[in-house]
Amino acid sequence: MLEQPTVKCPSCESDIRAADESGLVNVLQEHLYEEHALEMPRERVRENVYAQLKHFDGYNARPISGA
């Protein structure tokens, strides 16, 4: 069985897991809203998830928190 894909929340470094990339986007977007009161455009969250999954250096160069 394949391991679930995992990304880190760019705001608190919590591990976020889901069955697939689309699920990761949904879970991370929900986490950001509920835990950090951040409403981020879905495309911005998707970019962050994709970069983390592809292990791009500096994936967090464009902070999702806007800070």
Whole-number mean pLDDT = 84
Q: Over the alpha carbons, how many angstroms does the gyration radius reach?
A: 11 Å
- Order of strands, main sheet, comes to 1-2
Helical coverage, percent range? 40-55%
Count of distinct strands:
2
| Tally of individual helices | 2
- From the helix content, strand content and strand pairing, which structural class follows? mainly alpha
| Secondary-structure element order, N to C | EEHH
Number of domains: 1
Q: Keywords for this structure?
A:
67 residues, 2 helices, globular, two-stranded antiparallel sheet
Short description:
The protein has a two-stranded antiparallel ribbon. It has helices at residues 21-36, 42-53, and strands at 6-8, 15-17.
Secondary structure: elements and pairs:
Blueprint (H helix, E strand, L loop, with lengths): L5 E3 L6 E3 L3 H16 L5 H12 L14
Antiparallel strand pairs: 1-2
Helix pairs in contact: 1-2
Task: Describe what you observe in this structure.
This protein has one domain. With 67 residues, the protein is mainly alpha-helical. β1 and β2 form a beta hairpin. α1 packs across α2. The chain contains 2 helices and 2 strands, in the order ββαα. The protein is globular and about 30 Å long. Helices cover 42% and strands 9% of the residues. A two-stranded antiparallel sheet has the order 1-2.
